[in-house]
Amino acid sequence: MLSLTGCISLLLTGELNLLMTLGGLAILPGYYRFLKGMQPAPKWAVGAFSLLTLLVFFADSLVISGDVFLAVAHLTIIFQAIKSFDLKEPWDHLQVYFMTLLQLIIASDLTRSLLFGVVFVVFMVLLVTAMVLSHFLKEGALGRVRLGKPVFFISLSALLMTGMIFVLIPRTSYKFFGKSHAKGIRSSGFSEKVEFGSFGDLKLDPTVVMRVEMDADIAPLYWRGLALDYFDGRSWRNTREEKYRVDRFGDEFRIARCEKDGILEQRIFMEPIDSDIVFGLPAVCMIKSEGFWMLHADPGKSIFLHGKSSRRVKLIIYSDVNKEYEGEGGDSYLQLPGGTEKIKALADKITAGIEPDELKAAAISAYLRKNYRYSLRTAAPPAGVGPIEDFLFNTRRGYCEHYATSMAIMLRSLHIPSRVVNGYFGGEKNEYGGYIIVRQSNAHSWVEALIDNRWKRFDPTPASPQLRPSTIALFIDSLQLNWSRYVVGFSSVDQRQIVRGLSVPFGLKQLPGFKGPDFKMLLYSVLMGSLLCLLIYSYYRVRRIRKIGFITERYLSLRRSLRRKGVGMNQSVTPGNIKQAGASLGMAEDLDEFLSIYEEHRFGKRELSPEDRERYDRLLKQLKKKMS
């Protein structure tokens, strides 16, 4: 079971080449042979397969996977299978235990899933069980003792100690294996060149992109990402590629001045995606991020946090939600592809008699919302017809890219500077965690038009139905967020908060920059302190029982209870003296039976059966109850 746990932990990551792990299935007949007491495989066969596996490992590293790290993961699974046919000596099992531990270490770098936490706990319990079984087997006591209690208490102690080490170990931004091998979420709609129609696949993908905590409920939620200015009839791209470095002060990147009123804080937990773009509510004025040293922005107000892709990151974004981006016009925002005369004629018709640019933009947006139908089922346009012309005059149905692109072209034909912005819209509120889930299916395009030197947002896309996940799915997602936040994302900042939380109840001097107690972290700190005390108590109790033995430990516990009752207890007191004292307290019968078991097993050298052990414990509880 322990071997299977390690293999399962690797398979659950979804990063392995399944073809390279098929040989691991041999672990089932291998352990079946071992449990049936069959002879191990011949040495020559084990050696031959080991050599073959080594050759496959080199081929895997250089050609098949092209990654030594993944090749080692494949190698451990095959090794487990080979070793299952060659279990002869006691230390052979230790090799299996070590290999399983190595597999869990590798899996921890390949996944951040909550399932890994479950597998890790199962591994710890199975490892403790195997060690306890080995101990009692060596002592020849297997079958005469109960394994439940020692396995439970040792497993609990091991998990608590692991938690304490996890909390106390210094945090670093450098990874043990150098880089993350977890694959990022493919987000083809968020690169500096976006092929028209790329959002079609994203809108069908329920993968979670980010989770957002906010202290206020506002609507609508436009998570602004990439602004694009050039359309060639088939794709959008950003021609204003020059980027400037954002000033950094401590862990703050200051993009613009944050006014006192209207600032909304968004605590964003971003899943790994194949893009460096930062998504936040406009207008972003400041970003806080631990572990990142460089942030850039472009003239379109898109923000890039380099090194963010394929990593899970936490960002705190501050947005002035009452403010619009300032800007200036330019030829790039008036560019039109060829063959748009028919689209210009439609724009003129829609805005006939309307003068202010803002009202013209509003009229075009309302026209598209009213006269066209939202649909993800679109077909390629006929030969010689552009996708926007086909949408406006033929099919009259499409999704956000069709609407945003159509509106941008019509605005430009009216000499109103405009651009298409790609990002995410909305999200579902998870009541269990009080946060917002943003998925790939929330990918969205809208329009920004330059009116009175300010970029105003217009969304011409009609509302589309949204499917809400089940209650169980939302609850599991809440667990996943807490796992990512407090385990995967546990940082030096969290360590400092624990220290601060522990300092408050005792009146200790607060650390610099501490504004007040974080009661959530304080609660965790008190809980961890209590668990540490329980761990220390359990350790010394188990150590004492092992040192003097179960029978003697319970006997000494009875003596302490009698002393508290007023019965004189000194080193010369014998079990016979205790029987006399018990008669005066009215519990002679139970006390006589208890002491008989003690003398029989303590001095008679008789093995203590599970039934005697249970009866001995029960009598002690009854005696203590009578003395209370």
Explain how this protein is built.
The protein is built from 20 helices and 21 strands. It has 628 residues and is of the alpha+beta class. It has 4 domains: 2-145, no CATH class; 193-472, no CATH class; 473-531, no CATH class; 549-627, no CATH class. It has an 8-stranded antiparallel β-sheet with strand order 7-8-10-13-9-2-19-18, covered by helices on one side. It has a 5-stranded antiparallel β-sheet with strand order 3-17-20-21-14, covered by helices on one side. It starts with a helix and ends with a helix.
Task: Please specify the SSE layout and strand pairing.
Blueprint: H1 2-11, H2 18-21, H3 27-35, H4 43-64, H5 68-83, H6 90-110, H7 114-139, H8 148-168, E1 193-195, H9 199-202, E2 208-214, E3 222-228, E4 230-231, E5 235-237, E6 244-245, E7 247-249, E8 252-254, E9 263-270, E10 284-288, E11 296-297, E12 303-304, E13 313-320, E14 325-326, H10 341-350, H11 357-371, E15 373-374, H12 387-395, E16 397-398, H13 400-413, E17 418-425, E18 428-430, E19 435-439, E20 443-451, E21 454-458, H14 471-488, H15 492-503, H16 519-548, H17 550-565, H18 575-584, H19 588-602, H20 610-627
Parallel strand pairs: 15-16
Antiparallel strand pairs: 1-5, 2-9, 2-19, 3-17, 4-5, 6-11, 7-8, 8-10, 9-13, 10-13, 11-12, 14-21, 17-20, 18-19, 20-21
Helix pairs in contact: 1-5, 1-6, 1-7, 4-5, 5-6, 7-8, 8-16, 10-13, 11-13, 15-16, 16-17, 17-20, 18-19, 19-20
